[in-house]
């Protein structure tokens, strides 16, 4: 059996061993290159990496912070994964994230239900917010041929400004210590946190969502159609698959995942909506995680945790080593770029093959 067909199996989950090997090699090379830069800058790379690891996984609080930071990134990584799988370039995950967060706030604030029903409804309405924000770019592409890169990027700005306006002029809590925050949602819609940490049940929702996404892609006829359209749209069309329908469905699922990510932030972290809450969960983090995760939902979980660890660990690394934050950002960038290169290179080769 060739390396390309060897699989690591965990129950019904399969991951190509070649992809695991490539990721490990990429991570080692990234650490070596980053270590050289740290050393040339006058700092000890061993101490820097130890402090990075301790900041991300050195205590229960650190692990919780890492997983909390990873949660919305896993959702946006799943969003970008489904977009990539149907050959769509959905750069609107950031806007869909914001709309999902705001829709979840509305559901948690304006509706009153028993707890479990209220949580489920708020999550679903958050996903609906992301879906609604993905429909216009989808329709414009399918009906008018307007490229989704342009429309999804524009929708990001509209979403951020729209939620700014609604929060500041209609739902603002003037007594909040956080600037630009709404009132709190009802307790019945809040996702439970681990006491003393920022980690909420949103992380469990992210894991369940990723497993469902994996099953959808690998075990259903719809998943087969999605993968077929992504691999070869012409062959898929010849086989009787409606490429435009599957492309549209991929975009809508992508929007739903991004919206769920925003809902998780509102219901589990802030427990209210906060303007400009995202440091880039949708763009660029979602794209990076989808590439590092090789467009595999299980890989996206691991990649999301890696990126979350880089964010939380880098804070401790700055404090422990006095490395300037600019150099820390360089190190984080090198690691994420090296990890994304194998899949990015594969995509480039695929696009070149399809265009030739």
Highlighted features:
ABC transporter involved in vitamin B12 uptake, BtuC; mainly alpha; 356 residues; 2 strands; two-stranded antiparallel sheet; 2% strand; globular
Any overview of this molecule?
The chain is mostly helical and 356 residues long. The chain has one domain: ABC transporter involved in vitamin B12 uptake, BtuC, CATH 1.10.3470. Helix content is 74%, strand content 2%. The protein is built from 13 helices and 2 strands; from the N terminus they run E-E-H-H-H-H-H-H-H-H-H-H-H-H-H. The chain has helices at 17-40, 45-57, 60-85, 93-110, 115-144, 148-170, 202-219, 221-231, 233-238, 243-270, 281-292, 297-321, 325-355; strands at residues 7-10, 13-16. The chain has a two-stranded antiparallel sheet with strand order 1-2. Helix 3 crosses helix 11. The longest helix has 31 residues, at 325-355. The two termini are 31 Å apart. The mean pLDDT is 91.
Helicity range? over 70%
Provide the domain count: 1
Q: Largest sheet at a glance?
A: 2 strands, antiparallel
- CATH class reads Mainly Alpha
At CATH level 3, the topology is ABC transporter involved in vitamin B12 uptake, BtuC
Instruction: Please tell me what the overall shape is.
Output: globular
Proportion of residues in extended strands? under 5%
Work out the number of β strands: 2
The mean pLDDT is: 91
- The rounded distance between the terminal residues' Cα atoms is 31 Å
Order of strands across the main sheet:
1-2
Radius of gyration: 21 Å
Count of discrete alpha- or pi-helical segments spanning 4 or more residues: 13
CATH architecture tag: Orthogonal Bundle
Parts with pLDDT < 50 across at least 5 consecutive residues: none
Order of helices and strands: EEHHHHHHHHHHHHH
């Amino acid at each position: 059996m060739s390396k390309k067909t060897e699989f690591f199996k965990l129950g019904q989950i399969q991951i190509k061993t070649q992809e695991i090997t490539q990721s490990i090699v990429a991570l080692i090379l990234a650490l070596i290159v980053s270590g050289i830069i740290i050393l040339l800058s006058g700092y000890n790379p061993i101490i820097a990496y130890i402090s990075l690891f301790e900041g991300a996984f050195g205590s229960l609080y650190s692990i919780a912070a890492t997983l909390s930071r990873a949660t919305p990134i896993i959702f946006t990584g799943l969003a970008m994964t489904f977009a990539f799988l149907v050959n769509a370039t959905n750069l609107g995950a950031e806007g869909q994230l914001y709309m999902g967060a705001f829709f979840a706030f509305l559901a948690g604030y304006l509706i009153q239900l028993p707890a479990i029903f209220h949580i489920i409804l708020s999550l679903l309405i958050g996903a609906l917010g992301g879906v609604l924000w993905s429909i216009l770019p989808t329709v414009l592409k399918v009906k008018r041929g307007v490229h989704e890169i342009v429309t999804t990027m524009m929708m990001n700005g509209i979403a951020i400004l729209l939620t700014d306006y609604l929060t500041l002029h209609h739902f603002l809590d003037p007594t909040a210590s956080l600037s630009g925050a709404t009132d709190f949602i009802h307790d019945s819609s809040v996702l439970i946190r681990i006491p003393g940490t920022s980690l909420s049940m949103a992380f469990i929702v992210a894991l369940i969502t990723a497993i469902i996404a994996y099953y959808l892609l690998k075990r259903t006829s719809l998943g087969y159609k999605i993968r077929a359209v992504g691999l070869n749209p012409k062959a898929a069309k010849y086989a009787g698959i409606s490429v435009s329908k599957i492309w549209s469905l991929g975009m809508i699922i992508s929007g739903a995942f991004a919206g769920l990510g925003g809902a998780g932030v509102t219901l589990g972290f802030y427990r209210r909506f906060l303007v400009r809450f995202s440091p880039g969960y949708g763009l660029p983090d979602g794209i990076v995680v989808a590439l590092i995760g090789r467009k595999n939902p299980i890989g996206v979980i691991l990649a999301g945790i890696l990126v979350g660890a880089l964010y939380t660990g880098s804070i401790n690394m700055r404090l422990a080593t006095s490395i300037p934050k600019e150099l820390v950002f360089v190190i984080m960038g090198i690691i994420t770029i090296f990890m994304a290169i194998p899949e990015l290179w594969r995509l480039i080769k695929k696009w070149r093959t399809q265009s030739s």
